[in-house]
Amino acid sequence: MDRLIDGYRRFRQDTWPASRARYEELARRGQRPETLVISCSDSRVDPQTVFGAGPGELFVVRNVAGLVPPYEPDARYHGTSAAVEFAVRVLKVARIAVLGHAQCGGIIAMMHGVPEAARDFLAPWLTIARPALRCVPADLPPAAAMDRCEAEVVALTLRNLATFPWIAEEVAAGRLELCGFRFAVATGVLERLDANGFVPVT
Predict the structure, then answer these.
(1) Considering only CA atoms, which of 100, 110, 61, 97 is closest in space to residue 81?
(2) How far apart are CA 175 and CA 169, in angstroms?
(3) Can you tell me the distance from the alpha carbon of 112 to that of 100, in angstroms, rounded to the nearest whole number?
(4) Do 17 and 70 share a structural domain?
(5) Do 129 and 141 have their domain in common?
(6) What is the pTM of this model?
(7) Dist CA 74 CA 138 (whole Å)
(8) Residues 150 and 166 reside in one and the same domain
């Protein structure tokens, strides 16, 4: 707790004076982010830091492995889908960026088995990514298989987003862009997904 409070005190002393006007403006007019970022909950990968964004610029949804399930409106709880719906239909974001990353614990669990202590919710959640795992050739070395699976999960999430009818409609009308990225924790390199796969952002 002390560490959190110390961090807040540094924020009030160092950050708040220079950012006060920005926060007051956001409080007055509300949020109008242009980008929804769907990212992993991993503590090493902060979308706001990776994209150099400030308060009010990104609407961020984080969960294990940065997954979005296919469009399935029913009576169950859909926290990620609800956030996507709010960002697209209410906030009218102009783009959705899926941010994957290297050394993802969720993908490791999917490939090698979910820890016994995390089977109530984690195991069912990771079934969303099974189609990505099926795209990984069985003869790849472990590191290459991990890289491939990370890439396939980003591509799968983008495909799942396209199953939401109101996302498909906005994309078709040219009002919404879907894009995929992968961040290397060890090197700080960001790669963007294009027709040829992931290429470094220069």
Answers:
(1) 61
(2) 9
(3) 18
(4) no
(5) yes
(6) 0.94
(7) 36
(8) yes
Mean pLDDT of 88-117: 95
Q: Cite the DSSP H helix spans in the chain.
A: 2-10, 16-29, 47-50, 79-85, 105-112, 122-126, 130-133, 142-161, 165-172
- Return the number of other C-beta atoms located less than 10 Å from residue 178's C-beta: 19
- Which tens digits make up the pLDDT trace of 161-176? 999 999 999 999 999 9
Query: How many domains is the chain built from?
Result: 2
Assess contact for 94 and 176: CB atoms under 8 A. Answer: yes
Q: What is the pLDDT of residue 196?
A: 85
Q: What are the Cα distances from residue 102, in Å, to 28, 51, 163?
A: 38, 16, 26
Domain of 16, in residue numbers: 1-30
Residue 48 burial (CB < 10 Å; 0-12/13-18/19+)? middle
Nearest alpha-carbon partner for 59 in 25, 94, 29, 111: 94
User: Does 109 lie in the same domain as 22?
Assistant: no
